[in-house]
Amino acid sequence: MIRPMTRTALIAIALAACDAVPGNPRAPRPAHLDDAAEVARDLWSDEFGVDLPAPPPPIEWLAGDCLDVDAPGYACVRGWYAGGAIYLAARPAIADTLLAHEMLHWVLDQYGDSDGTHEAPAWRTALPDVEAAILAWELLQSETPR
Ligand SMILES: [Zn+2]
Question: For 131-136, what is the mean pLDDT?
Answer without folding.
Answer: 98
